[in-house]
């Protein structure tokens, strides 16, 4: 599983940048109103060798879809694999450091999953 990261140029609105990324990396077309704002998140990455701090400000959106995984056209250079999980099962896998390889930012994923559970209908 890979989290999509992108850098929005000044002339792009965040949501429109998200739509572009969804199209490029997942091969799907959605409308701005299909995205539900979930949360803001900040990730700090320190490079002690260079004495630098890379701070990423993330806006996280939620997209409800009934598309099958086979309907997505994933960009292989950005995403290695895509599959659906039950939220509770995914949280268990993240907490156990399972055999499935995730980007090592479990705190971020768990916060997002908790937020999704709070709005899930």
Which tags fit this structure?
single chain, 121 residues, alpha+beta, two-stranded antiparallel ribbon, 3 helices, 31% helix
Q: What can you tell me about this protein's structure?
A:
By secondary structure, the chain is α+β, with helices and mostly antiparallel strands. The protein is built from 3 helices and 2 strands, in the order αββαα. A hairpin with a 4-residue loop joins strand 1 (35-47) and strand 2 (52-63). The protein is globular. The relative contact order is 0.19. The mean pLDDT is 81.
Brief digest:
The protein is an alpha+beta fold and 121 residues long. The chain has helices at 14-26, 87-96, 106-119, and strands spanning 35-47, 52-63.
Global shape: globular
- Rg for CA atoms: 15 Å
Number of domains: 1
Spatial gap, N to C terminus? 24 Å
Mean pLDDT: 81
Q: How many β-strands, per DSSP?
A: 2
Helical percentage:
25-40%
The fraction of residues assigned to DSSP E strands is 15-25%
**From the helix content, strand content and strand pairing, which structural class follows?**
alpha+beta
The stretches of 5 or more residues where confidence is low (pLDDT under 50) are none
Quaternary status of these chains? single chain
Which sequence of strands runs across the widest sheet?
Answer: 1-2
Series of H and E elements: HEEHH
Task: Give a quick account of the main beta sheet: strands, pairing sense, barrel closure.
Answer: 2 strands, antiparallel
Supply the number of helical segments: 3
